[in-house]
Each structure stands twice: as structure tokens, then as C-alpha cells.
Sequence to fold (553 residues):
Amino acid sequence: MKRILYVMVLFLVPGILTAAPWPNNEFFRAMNDEMQRTLKQLRLKGHPDPYYVAYWAKQSHSVNVRAQMGTLVPMADTSKNKIPVQISALVSVGSDKEDALNFVDASTYMPGVILSTRASVPVGYESIRQALWELTDDIYLSVVNLYQAKKAYKQKKNIQDKLPDIVPAKPGRFVEEIPPFQRPDLPRLEQAVKEMSALGNEIAFIENFSAGINSGRNDIYFLNSRGAFAQYMRPQVSLTLRASWRQPNGKKENEMLKYDLPDTSDASLAQMKVYAQEFLARIERAHGAKSGDTYIGPVLLKPRMAATLLWNAILNDMQQTKPLLRTDTHDDDDPSAGKLNKKRGVRVSTDLLTIYDRPLARDFEGIALARFSPVDDEGVASENITLVENGYVKEIPLSQRPISPKHRSNGHGFFDYFAMNVTVQSLRERLTNVFVEPKEQLTDRQMEEKLLARCRELGLEYGYIIYDGFGPLGIERIYTADGHKETILDLNTDSDNFNFMPRDLRSVLAVGGKKELVHDYEVTITPSILLSEMELVPKDPKPHRKPFIERPK
Fold:
């Protein structure tokens, strides 16, 4: 069982670190030794010295098994070997008052931060330190040039900063013991995916069906020159199901769904089989289903689709709260900045829900959350915050980049989670694990009853339930007469990009039902949301050529 050695112990360590309160392992020894050498010795005559350094190491353990129509698909298994690590380095010059970052130089396409990463570094003090030295050396000159370009641009535009580039914050510290990665029983997982994928052989019109299990863990190590450090784990277990099949008219359909689970225990494997059976049952209901017509009326969004609504309507605009200084726009006009960064206290949604961001949440119903972040990428202790309460914006994610004279970071300065291997990117204010809590505890059945009641008020024969998008399995029609459901094909919103707006969240009829974890690009724990009105329009799908002969039995 893991032990937490340090839990959010916060205090300021000025200057270069001289003590060694972090774990005595090869990651931290290499990071600290190279960091001190960088701060003391890295010099370029006539240019500013580095004043801030941050290093990351991420070791990813993963066991993957996949089978297709009952047959194993060969997968590389690297978990038996000593896993290499991904190393990242960040350097800045100048000072907290005016540093090299938070600036986009369109002439060189340098967007604000120079983060350099090497993907496969052998584990060991010497190799890690060598990689850190190379990365630091590579990016130092780029940072110096960015710093000079930023100063020149501000002088040219006569930009007088009233706020410093960085406000001080106590360095966050979080350390837990990281035990050796325990490989799951591979033959047992292989048998499970073979049995699940073989279920596709029982349905004649399915052309391909595969099941894949991933069991892994990311081990994170972080150290910066302000005294912050972190060592923690992010485990993950998931099942991915993929299917392709033909409609009676020859149209080819494809669908993929991912399910997260607590572990690879017998109970979890049994649940995976249930997911596979439900997935195939949905395909059978979609086979030969009728196409939909234009519809305007109430729609019940199940959790996966409710998450899409939330992110597109307001959550994306609550991120990146500090505008970047850009050479390709007017001063202080950063189109990438969140539109709600100045709207604290403004009503943006129904009062039927409260929205939290919880970077300190480790799991939901036993399933590990991929955005657990006790310390942010600036080395500040992350805080759980309330984003929306009673329909009004209450708090927003904040980094050490100030937006007001009384600014205080709440530990939400992060790089893009899915771009840590990109050489150039910006550290921005980002959300982590978003939790949506309904004001009233309703069941799934009660949510459907509210949908049907509203449809009857409007004189509608049916309403719609949208599960996970507008794919072939995503939409069901529910009839007001008796509540029976049927899958409907070829419907979409009036925009292919799910053009949800903040006004959609201000006209919600109900929020409730079983909360689910949506672990896609973002992490959202949300119940269903019933919209009072949504417009659905028919697609015009192009038919596919039927195969000349049937799938082999």
C-alpha cells in the first residue's frame, strides 16, 4: 500500500535549493544537480542569465492486450523491461517583474513558453542528467531571443506593465511512495479480450469487432528552482471497444467507445463483458433503424453528451484566463484567452447545478482520475475551486500570471495535458477534474419522465435522448404515448461542431440521474442534462458499396 510522505507542505525556499527534502532517488538527484549547475554556470555574454528552471520526468508503464473477432492481435509488451522516461525542461530569463514567457512572437512562431521534451530516456542518474543538460542547452538561446523580442515589442508599442509577469506563491510539495509497477496477469487479460471480441461473431452483419484492455500507470516527478517538487502516480485501466458493420442498405457504420474501470480484478473483467454485451446490443438496435427528421424540442443529454455541452458552452471559456501578449493582434487582444476571465459574478448557467474543479480528487467511484494534480506546472499547490454556483461564475482557474493587483494563484497553471511532447507551447490556466453536482437528486427514470412531460405539454409525439454524440449508436427517440425507445440514425445539430452556447445552459429544465465519468480529452463527472429546446436536423449520408461476398463465418 502506498504511503504519502509529504502532503501539501508549503513554504518558501529562496534562491537555489541547497537542502534535499525531496525523495533520494535518481530522478530528483539528476534534476537537482543539473538545475543547480544551470543556475550557477549557464551564461551567454551580453545576455540575461537563467533565473528560473523547471524539470519533469514521466515514466509510463502500460500493458495492452487486444483481440479481434476472438483472435489475439499482437501487441508490444515493454513492461518487462526497464521503462524509459520522458524528460521535459523549462527555462526562463529576466525576473518575476519581466520574464521571457507569456509572449507570442508571430515572426518566429514562439507561443509564450519554451518547453523542450525528449520522449525515451533510459532510467539512470547519468542518462537523465545528460538529457536535462541537452534540453536546457537547446532551449536557452531560444528563451534569450524570446526575452529580447518581448522587450523590443513592448518598447515599440509603449506598453507599460502595471502588473509583474509573475506574482509570488508558496511552492507546493507533494510526495507519495511509488512502488514498482505490478504487471497484471497477461494470459488472464488476453483470455478476457478474446472472449469479448468473439461475441462479434454471433452477429452476422458485423464486419469487425475488437476489444482492448489497457492497464497502466504514469509516474510523475517534478522539481523547480523555487523549491517546489512533486512525486505521485496516475494509474489507469480502460476498455476500448470498436465495431464496424453494414446497414441493410449497404451503408458502413463505425463506432468506438472507451470505458474506465478501477482495476483488472475479476469484478472489473466481468463488468467489461457487460459493457461489450451492451455495446453489441446497441448495434443490433441500430441495424436497420430509421432515419430522423427535423426536430425542435426538449432533448435529454446523457452524461457523455452533457459533458460536451458543458465544455462547449462555458468550461472552455473559463480556461486561459490570462491573455498572452501577442505581436499578431491588438494589445491585450488575445483570441485564445477565455471569454469568461472577467465575468466573475455573471450568470452563465441554470441554478440547477454547481460546477467544481477538483485537481486534488484522485478517483471517482474507485476509478482513477487522469487529471489528479496536487502541484501545478508552476510548482504551486493546486486548490479545489467552485466554478459556478447558483448559475453564477464564482471562481476561475488562476496561475502565477496576474490579472488584477490582488491576484493570487490557485494552482491551475498547466501545460496542455496532451501536448507535453510538443517542443513549443504555452503554460496556461486550465481545468482539471470537473465535477457537476445537481441541485436535486433525480433518478434516470425521473429525468426521462420530465422529458416526456415537457413533450406532452408541447404536443410532441416524441422526444430525443442523446447518449454520446451523433454516431450510429448515439440517439434514441422516446415516445410520449408509452415511453418506448428506438434508435434513430442520421441526425445532427445544425452545426457539426456541437454549437452549444451559454444560453443553452440558462434554459435547462432538469439536471440529474446517475453521474458518470467522461474520460475523453477532458475529465468530467456529470449527470444528465435536460434541455428545454434543441434543434436536430437530418444528415444526408452517402451510401457505400456493399461487399461482393459476405464476411467469412
Observations:
- The chain has seven helices and 27 strands.
- Confidence is low (pLDDT under 50) at residues 1-19, 418-424.
- The two ends are 48 Å apart (CA to CA).
- The longest strand covers residues 50-68.
